[in-house]
Known about the structure:
Layout: E1 2-10, H1 13-23, E2 28-36, E3 55-58, E4 61-67, E5 74-80, H2 83-90, E6 94-98, H3 102-114, E7 117-122, H4 134-146, E8 149-152, H5 155-164, E9 171-173, H6 180-188, E10 199-203, H7 212-219, E11 227-231, H8 237-246, E12 253-257, H9 261-270, E13 273-276, H10 286-292, E14 297-300, H11 306-309, E15 316-319, H12 324-336, H13 338-351, H14 357-370
Parallel strand pairs: 1-2, 1-6, 2-3, 6-7, 7-8, 8-9, 10-11, 10-13, 11-12, 13-14, 14-15
Antiparallel strand pairs: 4-5
Helix pairs in contact: 1-14, 4-5, 7-12
Amino acid sequence: xxxxxxxxxMMSFYxxxxxxELAKNRYYKxxxxxxxxxxxxxxxxxxxxxxxxxxxxxxxxxxVIKKSRGIIETRVINIPKAVFKTLKKIDPDxxxxxxxxxxxxxxxFYAKLRRKKFxxxxxxxxxxxxxxxxxQLFIRKFICKKADYFxxxxxxxxxxxxxxxxxxxxxxxxxxxxxxxxxxxxxQKLTKNSNDAPRILFCGYLLKLKGVANLLSALKDIQTDFxxxxxxxxxxxxxxxxxxxxxxxxxxxxxxxxxxREEIVKFYKNADIFIFPSLNDAFGLALVEALAARLxxxxxxxxxxxxxxxxxxxxxxxxxxxxxxxxxxxxxxxLRDEKLRKIMGEKSFRLSEKFFLKNVAxxxxxxxxxx
Length: 371
């Protein structure tokens, strides 16, 4: 049985769903390595380790928060210990490493020294990485020219890998995803409330780069009735509350705060429109949740997953959140046309199947088989 080591930065709920799916495969023995259990940043994730059904190791790493250039103000750097020692103990035939961080670089050199196959796996896009430094760009180009195969989390990630030097014929697509089937099952158990006005949903961290201020700006001159449900917490919450008040939207915008995975399902069930106005996002997992919830979607062109989740004029629109007039125009179209919302919502649901974990896992198996 071929042994596979998959290395990523931290435990996150969506990675664990995928890893459980991969571990079911009877032809490969997987071992998962995490640089750290959590990160010192704004992410609030509840991890139920009782649901982990795979072998894993958490490295002893030191986390450092550094200021970044551009719209992303800070980033977390994990400085791992015992990468070589851990890999030597596992003795994998194939190493799959996420992104281009220090752990991945160490695992790359281990693979080359031990003559193991190395697969580079990434979520990043040319947009999400447009502010990287010259050393970071050098590492990407170096790995993309030397790796045996590649896994891309989106169409835009694939384009970035090719730009960095990867052979376009050696890239497998494996979308970033949640357990969509479980999400659909949870939705089916609920009954949608009768809404007096169409409900718009935003779900995400309240940071500047999430573009919620742009959403409020687009909504301020809309005369059609609506309710905006904002799910999430973060450092921008006070500023956004002040902005809603400034725009006289206090009666139309509801800040619900952080909700866990079980709680957010009811908000998707009761929503009529989903909006993802991010100014910088490698993918945007909430877009996949919106597909499963049968919602029409207005997604930012700066979201790496927009092109894989939104078919223009079919299940939604891809917009520039900084173009307020065009943004407002698309919102108004959906607010005024209930029939269109339902038609687009059904098309969203049909698109959700490609994000089922069994389909997402195929990209990993393709890369392993062909590397």
